[in-house]
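Repro case for the chain-ordering regression, as requested:
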Amino acid sequence: MLTMLEDVKELGCGQVKFLSISGYLDASTISQFEQRMTRIVSENPRKMIVSFRGLEYINSAGIGLFLSTDRLLGQAGGKMVLVDMPAKICRILDVLGFSKILTITSDVQAAAERLTAVST
Amino acid sequence: MNAAPTPPLPPSITLCVPARTDSLHLIRYVVLHGAIQFGFPEEDAAKIEMATDEACSNVIVHGYGVARSDRNHPPLYIYIYFEPDRILIRIVDKAKPFSPLSHGDVQIHEYLKQGKLGGLGIFIMKALVDEITHQYSEGEGNKLELVKFLPGRRPRKS
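-- result from build under test --
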């Protein structure tokens, strides 16, 4: 089961695409998530925050999708920040070295600060 | 009020599930909680959970090539052995021969440059457990074994 809630928020850094995911991101839910992310990327958001609050599990394909989205947004001059990451997922990303590639902050406020420098 | 005592673990657990992606949640649940109850710290249990999920996903998606709601779902066997110094997960399937060990290591910087979406599963599996072995025979199919030693119990390489 995967639940995704999408919103546009006005934060201190300007308008931000906000996506909240909960449940689990595995081989049974990845295509649903990939379709959603493909559409979001096609809208070319300059600033994006993804909340992992309530995400119990992420598999390799989910991680690969975030790496790819991070790269695509970056190439277009945008930025994605991941927030509210459960300790279990954070530790796995640390061990695999992906937390050095993806931008991860503790909460939305810290993410907004990281997005301040990104032009809209 | 005191919590009810946790019953002792059996020496092994066998799961036989339909080879469908919606079986993965149950597999992860049993592996994660079995590993924690066996004595692994949560961090290591999560590694075993993920390596098992990746291995089983490979079998279901690439080996059998079945979708989540496919009605013709062959069985997938997962044997979990709690040995004195390690947990051993054996995954047995009758899909086409496939060894994750035959795939070369992923170079992450190259992978990122290529902008691929998939292809990280085997890299992750190798990174998260201590040993992986694979055997294939006509009669028994694929037999993949994942081993993770309890903290401080991993034998030193000679």
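Ordering looks correct now. The longest strand of chain B covers residues 75-83.
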